[in-house]
């Protein structure tokens, strides 16, 4: 699967070591786990202001919870100052009144790292806020792909892969003495940029390690919880069985009904009709039998995670095929730019103060045929009015009076026979400072029309797209700007 840093892609220049996130040092003898720990940022405590900035003040537009704001604990997409994409889960103080206990528990969960988990990389406990920070998964939940698909149902081989990967993650949790996983269900399984299924680390967080404190949104809770109000490690196996039922049937099905069908030798009636022709009856029967074992009412009769792995592993028949191909999704790959100018770096970290300073310093020197001033062919009163309008716009831009700058530059655009890329760029930034990202994007695109391969235009588009929450497109624009930057540098060297 390669380095998991691509899960949370960020753009950093190699000459800025201070902007690199801290990472856990790898153990050269530990294979994949060492690679994982080298790529995933080390667990840390974040400040509330930092996470508010990352989520645009916990904006509703940044919510990624499938239930939206109705979810008991809302999850937001966010981007940190180093351009790291993250998921931020906002919990209630009532569930974690003791902030020290919360931080200690989160730090413990943060140590449980695995390539098939959505790894926890931080937390925050300030005032009434209790926040968890994890890797960002761009390709939705199993629930979305299994029960609410748009284009095509999840194929059989991918469903088997989900079953195996989640068993792998649960087995790792068990080995790390995190044997109780709360609320294992299709919402807790997410797909990374490669389309690989991963188990959310959020399910390991609970303010009681012994299973006494447990809340669930599941329709099908483990029998022992209904009897005693407690969950135990074997409860996780029961919940895994309900996930298998969903994978097999493509719908929510009560375990009791499923067991009745199995006992009645009508096992294939459980199967999702959209999977017809994709599996052998023998493989389907084996997976149904495994679900049956997991759903036993007595905890002692259920298998352990090692058994799950041994049972599912032989059912994988296309291990060499990448998950994103099986799912029919476009793999989201991001290659960090090899070189970013100071403006590119400022846009990457969304440092608007630095962007403004650089635009001021650059002036109009990138305009073709002029150093620091627009050129005109003849001197007329109209030209004088244009120069005055430009002057007033530049003064307003310099003084950070961005509303006035927009007014003057808008007037200037209407007066000019030949559009100015710099004027569009400055007005784009002014729109950004007035929280009008869509208009900023439009002007940055106009600047690109004026000068087709102008890095500044691409960098400003990236900044506007980031403000609009369009992270993938923003990263593409940053890459394009860096590519034209490199092309320009190479042409100067020739």
From TrEMBL:
<keyword id="KW-0472">Membrane</keyword>
<dbReference type="InterPro" id="IPR000719">
    <property type="entry name" value="Prot_kinase_dom"/>
</dbReference>
<keyword id="KW-0418">Kinase</keyword>
<dbReference type="GO" id="GO:0005886">
    <property type="term" value="C:plasma membrane"/>
</dbReference>
<keyword id="KW-0547">Nucleotide-binding</keyword>
<dbReference type="Pfam" id="PF07714">
    <property type="entry name" value="PK_Tyr_Ser-Thr"/>
</dbReference>
<keyword id="KW-1003">Cell membrane</keyword>
<dbReference type="GO" id="GO:0005524">
    <property type="term" value="F:ATP binding"/>
</dbReference>
<keyword id="KW-0519">Myristate</keyword>
<comment type="similarity">
    <text>Belongs to the protein kinase superfamily. Ser/Thr protein kinase family.</text>
</comment>
<protein>
    <submittedName>
        <fullName>Serine/threonine-protein kinase BSK2</fullName>
    </submittedName>
</protein>
<dbReference type="InterPro" id="IPR001245">
    <property type="entry name" value="Ser-Thr/Tyr_kinase_cat_dom"/>
</dbReference>
<dbReference type="InterPro" id="IPR045845">
    <property type="entry name" value="BSK"/>
</dbReference>
<dbReference type="InterPro" id="IPR011990">
    <property type="entry name" value="TPR-like_helical_dom_sf"/>
</dbReference>
<feature type="region of interest" description="Disordered">
    <location>
        <begin position="1"/>
        <end position="34"/>
    </location>
</feature>
<dbReference type="Pfam" id="PF25575">
    <property type="entry name" value="TPR_BSK1_C"/>
</dbReference>
<dbReference type="GO" id="GO:0009742">
    <property type="term" value="P:brassinosteroid mediated signaling pathway"/>
</dbReference>
<dbReference type="InterPro" id="IPR011009">
    <property type="entry name" value="Kinase-like_dom_sf"/>
</dbReference>
<keyword id="KW-0067">ATP-binding</keyword>
<keyword id="KW-0723">Serine/threonine-protein kinase</keyword>
<keyword id="KW-0449">Lipoprotein</keyword>
<dbReference type="GO" id="GO:0004674">
    <property type="term" value="F:protein serine/threonine kinase activity"/>
</dbReference>
<keyword id="KW-0808">Transferase</keyword>
<feature type="domain" description="Protein kinase">
    <location>
        <begin position="61"/>
        <end position="327"/>
    </location>
</feature>
<dbReference type="InterPro" id="IPR058209">
    <property type="entry name" value="TPR_BSK1_C"/>
</dbReference>
């Amino acid at each position: 699967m390669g380095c998991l840093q691509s899960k949370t892609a960020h753009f950093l220049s190699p000459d800025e070591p201070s902007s690199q996130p801290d990472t856990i040092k790898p153990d050269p003898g530990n294979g994949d786990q060492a690679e994982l720990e080298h790529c995933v940022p080390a667990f840390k405590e974040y400040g509330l202001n930092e996470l508010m900035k990352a989520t645009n003040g916990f904006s509703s537009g940044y919510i990624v919870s499938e239930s939206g704001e109705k979810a008991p604990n809302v999850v937001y997409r966010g981007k940190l100052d180093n351009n790291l994409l993250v998921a931020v889960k906002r919990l209630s103080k009532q569930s974690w009144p003791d902030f020290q206990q919360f931080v200690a528990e989160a730090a413990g969960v943060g140590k449980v790292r695995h390539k098939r988990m959505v790894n926890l990389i931080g937390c925050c406990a300030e005032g009434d806020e209790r926040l968890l920070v994890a890797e960002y998964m761009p390709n939705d939940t199993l629930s979305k792909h299994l029960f609410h698909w748009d284009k095509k149902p999840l194929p059989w081989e991918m469903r088997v892969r989900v079953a195996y990967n989640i068993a792998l993650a649960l087995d790792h949790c068990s080995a790390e003495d995190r044997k109780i996983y709360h609320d294992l269900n299709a919402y807790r399984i997410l797909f990374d940029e490669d389309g690989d299924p991963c188990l959310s680390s959020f399910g390991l967080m609970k303010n009681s390690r012994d299973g006494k404190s447990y809340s669930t949104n599941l329709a099908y809770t483990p029998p022992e919880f209904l009897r005693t109000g407690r969950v135990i490690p074997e409860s996780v196996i029961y919940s895994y069985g309900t996930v298998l039922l969903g994978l097999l049937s493509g719908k929510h099905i009560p375990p009791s009904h499923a067991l009745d069908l199995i006992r009645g030798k009508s096992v294939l009636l459980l199967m999702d009709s959209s999977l017809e022709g994709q599996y052998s009856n023998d493989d389907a029967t084996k997976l149904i039998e495994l679900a049956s074992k997991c759903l036993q009412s007595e905890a002692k009769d259920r298998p352990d995670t090692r058994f799950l792995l041994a049972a599912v592993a032989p059912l994988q028949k296309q291990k060499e095929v990448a998950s994103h191909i099986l799912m029919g999704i476009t793999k989201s790959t991001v290659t960090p730019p090899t070189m970013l100018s100071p403006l590119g770096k400022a846009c990457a970290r969304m440092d608007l103060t630095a962007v403004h300073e650089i635009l001021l310093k650059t002036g109009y020197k990138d305009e073709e045929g002029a150093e620091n001033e627009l050129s005109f062919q003849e001197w007329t009163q109209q030209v004088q009015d244009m120069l005055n309008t430009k002057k007033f716009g530049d003064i307003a831009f310099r003084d950070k009076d961005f509303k006035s700058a927009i007014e003057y530059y808008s007037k200037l655009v209407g007066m000019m026979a030949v559009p100015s890329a710099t004027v569009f760029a400055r007005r784009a930034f002014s729109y950004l400072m007035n929280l009008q990202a869509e208009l900023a994007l439009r002007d940055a695109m106009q600047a690109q029309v004026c000068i087709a391969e102008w890095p500044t235009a691409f960098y400003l588009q990236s900044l506007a797209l980031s403000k609009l929450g369009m992270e993938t497109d923003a990263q593409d624009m940053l890459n394009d700007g860096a590519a034209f930057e490199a092309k320009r540098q190479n042409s100067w060297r020739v």
